[in-house]
């Protein structure tokens, strides 16, 4: 066997597109040797997320549900994309999630919108 010449890699699953809305989701390994699809670039304070929906990132890159109540006031967590997906009907679990779902719906619309028309070269005189 040879000497390991590079640093060990963190576990990671990469990205995939949501089949419902088309936005990217992070595919992340769990402690249970499974995968979960998380909302990318979203790390809310854990105390703002119900315990059964808090995914905490571990040092090796895996995640686990963090059901400690109440969590540390500065602890950050991740949420599943399915909760923020604008194409799936879900109840209003908590107010900021409703805002996130609305923003994701706007992102999908911007993705699908054609380029805006160029501005007119001359404006008519108002006189």
Short recap of the structure:
This protein has helices at 81-84, 95-112; strands spanning 15-17, 24-29, 35-38, 55-57, 63-65.
Report what the structure shows.
This protein has about 130 residues and is an alpha+beta fold. It contains two helices and five strands; from the N terminus they run βββββαα. The strands form two sheets. A three-stranded antiparallel beta sheet has the order 1-2-3, with no helix packed on it. A hairpin with a 5-residue loop joins strand 2 and strand 3. The chain is elongated and about 65 Å long. InterPro entries: DUF6083. This is DUF6083 domain-containing protein.
Mean pLDDT: 82
Shape: elongated
Q: Helical segment tally?
A: 2
Q: Sheet bearing the most strands, described? A: 3 strands, antiparallel
Going across the biggest sheet, name each strand in turn. Answer: 1-2-3
The ordered H/E elements are: EEEEEHH
Using the CA coordinates, give the radius of gyration.
20 Å
Low-confidence stretches: 1-10
State the end-to-end distance: 85 Å
* Class of secondary structure makeup: alpha+beta
The fraction of residues in strands falls at: 5-15%
Number of strands: 5
Proportion of residues in helical segments = 10-25%
Write the layout of secondary structure elements.
Elements: E1 15-17, E2 24-29, E3 35-38, E4 55-57, E5 63-65, H1 81-84, H2 95-112
Features:
two-stranded antiparallel ribbon, disordered N terminus, 127 residues, 5 strands, 15% strand, alpha+beta, 17% helix, 3-stranded antiparallel β-sheet
